[in-house]
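To: structure subgroup
Subject: Chain for Friday's discussion

All,

I'm putting the inputs and outputs inline so they're searchable in the archive.
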Amino acid sequence: MQYSGLDAFLKEANPALGKGPVAMVFCEDETEIDTTLRHHMQLGFKSTLAFMPAHFAVAPDVRERIHRIDYDLNSEGAVPRAVNAVGAAGPGLWMFYCYNAEYLFYPFCETRSISEMLAFHAEERRDAMLTYVIDLYARDLDRNPDAVSLDEAWLDRSGYYALARNDPANHNHPKERQLDFFGGLRWRYEEHIPTERRKIDRIAIFRAKPGLHLREDHTFDDEEYNTYACPWHSNLTAALASFRTAKALKRNPGSTFEIPSFHWHNSARFEWHSRQLLDLGLMEPGQWF
């Protein structure tokens, strides 16, 4: 079903949201819209919301299974505004958000549904899940000038690190169980990335509740939602395999001509399987076996 805007969708939000989990996909351009939506529907999301301009094309088989919402992603604060509005309309539901050409992976996602994973996560008294945005890129930029290729996707197998997250309001005391994570293309080409956009951590999976707000830096105003684990043991984490940074670097006139190739000695072919991400330490199974 297609809605003329966010307000129109929210008037009918209850039947559209269903029981959850709900996926929200924000389409900034027309790159891999259909594959992004199909991937997340196959993971088992009960409702898939696609935010995009009215003129973007969507395949017929995808269009009949999603809730398409006409939306201007170029407006200031567009994504947090939509996430917060949908969250307010579905308190108690598990929700997820990403951009087009981003693909969610969690431990054992090939054989276990998103609902199974979130049921376990909820049993551990967790209301949010940390996801790492893992940059994907095409090796041959002459053949793939936008740096996007599902058939020949590569990632960095090393170069990731974390720093303690400080609390400026508390004399730079580190926030409990919070870290800033870095790596991938945002680390290798940091001279082309604004400082506030260099982190690769995102709280992309969360349980909606009244008064909860997503901020521009992909964190929430409830600080417990921003933690990577509970106080007593490690928890599940997930990964977003994403072409978004590679696309931006190749489309930006200030960086495109300085990057003839993203490939380097620590590049590895992406296998499109959770086992590879687990083996590289790019997500954690916690106590879920």
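Points worth raising on Friday:
Residues 102-289 form one domain.
Residues 94 and 207 are 4 Å apart (CA to CA).

D.
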